[in-house]
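Bumping my old thread because nobody answered last time. Still need a sequence for this structure:
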């Protein structure tokens, strides 16, 4: 926690000055710092990152990454494993967290799902980021899955609607082991290996709103399959 907090304190003036003076042009440089921050924290804390099927994605292309969300660690480790520049779509409530809330609001696109105006505003922001070559990261379960019995909560359609609107591929991403870092959301943090499994990109070219349900089901099935593999392996 001390190591992580030290990097966070350096990030506050970097974000404030960088985004204040240069706006979103500072985004790629901030991403470099974020990767350095999370990877160095992992190295010093005994947290290791393992990528599977990394060849499926190109850091120079834009995607809508959809990932499962089982632990607090998910929102931090994405910087270490997702290639290229990307912006997470994050619920507005996260902006109220002390210190980290400020950082989230500079780097993420915040949305209040209860507000149509907020959803429309966030979509316009996402379109601007994609035009600049960025990818988008969404946790389609909508909130963290705290259940020990349910592998994957039902997906909301928002991420898939965004992918169709922007006509960019969807990449299902499965995070394994993030809950081992911070069991039961209580200290201490434990050394662990976090695995990130990329699914094959799903094209949305030429697709329309009637295809959203199929895209959602296909992505859900891909991530659920990886989680079932992990569960089966852990019981052997």
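Sorry it took so long. Here it is:
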């Amino acid at each position: 926690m001390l190591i992580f907090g030290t990097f966070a304190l350096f990030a506050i003036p970097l974000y404030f000055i960088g985004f204040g003076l240069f706006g979103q042009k500072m985004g790629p440089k901030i991403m470099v710092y974020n990767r350095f921050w999370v990877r160095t924290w992992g190295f010093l804390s005994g947290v290791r990152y393992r990528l599977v099927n990394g060849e499926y994605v190109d850091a120079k292309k834009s995607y809508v990454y959809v990932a499962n969300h089982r632990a607090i660690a998910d929102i931090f480790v994405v910087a270490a494993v997702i290639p290229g520049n990307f912006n997470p779509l994050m619920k507005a409530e996260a902006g109220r967290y002390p210190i980290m809330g400020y950082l989230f609001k500079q780097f993420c696109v915040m949305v209040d799902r209860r507000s149509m105006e907020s959803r429309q505003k966030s979509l316009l922001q996402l379109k601007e980021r994609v035009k600049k070559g960025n990818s988008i990261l969404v946790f389609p379960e909508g909130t963290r899955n705290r259940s020990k019995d349910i592998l994957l909560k039902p997906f909301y359609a928002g991420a898939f609607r965004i992918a169709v609107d922007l006509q960019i591929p969807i990449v299902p991403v499965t995070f394994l082991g993030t809950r081992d870092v911070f069991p039961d959301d209580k200290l201490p943090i434990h050394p662990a290996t976090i695995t990130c499994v990329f699914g094959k990109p799903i094209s949305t070219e030429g697709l329309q709103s009637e295809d959203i349900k199929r895209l959602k089901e296909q992505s859900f099935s891909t991530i659920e399959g990886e989680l079932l593999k992990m569960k089966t392996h852990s019981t052997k």
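The chain has a mean pLDDT of 87. Let me know if any region looks off to you.
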